[in-house]
């Protein structure tokens, strides 16, 4: 493989912004990619994937490179040299790589093979929490969560169907595979920048993990119903709910951030969705007004995000145990307050993109035992694991109000 100095330099700069300035990896990468309009899709892919890989394996690579935080520019170049060597490539003859101990780097990986925290590059506290929460499966799950996530599309059934979309993508030289368990999903055979296609700008599909596509469906929304999407964010699931409801009925999408709801609105226009109304949660009034009014509610709760580490590897370094403890309290508060909007006979789905029982089953159990939960019964629940199901990790539970 031939390396280009300006692309590795861009990677080093992106890493500097992520590790030293605390920027989110996706934002830092987006910003760096704007640097040179002459970069083609391969160049962009190289910068993005190399940066993500080094973020993912920060602890491992830093230990092999014998550098520690805060990283200076030379340290960051050393991290890139470890990446190149461990990928099995020859180091280019650039001055930044003079005197790189190639054999020591190769041996460094062997030394840590039996040390999970190092090999999988995770903070000590997270490894301990993972074992406590998941026991034996933690090892397989964290390994799977370090793999690169596939790109998955969700056909927007308001405008097309999976088979037609698949054909249209072939015309754009984008080959995809269908998946029996995920009826609206198309998994890209090879990574491609699908956001640049006209099919995307015309709203024929959304980019959405396959596991995530099960969540809106789990609520079993029907055309004409009144559904609340309580933690709607930028609307990934709200758009799916609308498509399943064939644009009929009403979806009330709420969040505590207006900026996210604005993005949701923008996405509804592209997707041809007409039945979503956004409401900012700035007091308890919004929920009070909707008491006992909804046929169904989706609570896609804020969480640790550990199930989607493959897409956000920097979360490993940004997450703190205190944050996870606090978010669990928020999850229970959200369940307690939003469950009131469900009418008798209605459904509630509680979902997270976490794989930890303390954010999932245990929250549902606690809710069902509480006063607010006394009228609800659990219908079904399931966890998707990256190592078992091949996509992101998710949890979903469906409850019914008596
Ligand atoms: C997992 S994200 C939602 C993702 C979104 N449903 C999607 O499919 O794209 C959780 C969301 O909950 C929102 N949130 C946090 N606390 C909330 C609260 N008390 N009420 C409503 N939304 C809240 C966050 O701002 C965040 O957008």
From TrEMBL:
Cross-referenced InterPro entries: MeTrfase_RsmB-F_NOP2_cat (IPR049560), MeTrfase_RsmB-F_NOP2_dom (IPR001678), RCMT (IPR023267), RsmB-like_ferredoxin (IPR054728), SAM-dependent_MTases_sf (IPR029063)
Entry GO MF terms: RNA binding; RNA methyltransferase activity
Domain of life (superkingdom): Bacteria
Keyword tRNA-binding appears in the UniProt entry: no
Keywords: Methyltransferase, RNA-binding, S-adenosyl-L-methionine, Transferase
Binding site for S-adenosyl-L-methionine: 255, 282, 300
Active site residues according to the UniProt entry: 353
Keyword Amino-acid biosynthesis attributed: no
A biological process from GO: RNA methylation
Signal peptide per UniProt: none
Domain SAM-dependent MTase RsmB/NOP-type: 141-402
Family: Belongs to the class I-like SAM-binding methyltransferase superfamily. RsmB/NOP family.
PANTHER family named in the record: NOP2 YEAST -RELATED NOL1/NOP2/FMU SUN DOMAIN-CONTAINING (PTHR22807), RIBOSOMAL RNA SMALL SUBUNIT METHYLTRANSFERASE B-RELATED (PTHR22807:SF53)
Protein name as annotated: tRNA and rRNA cytosine-C5-methylase
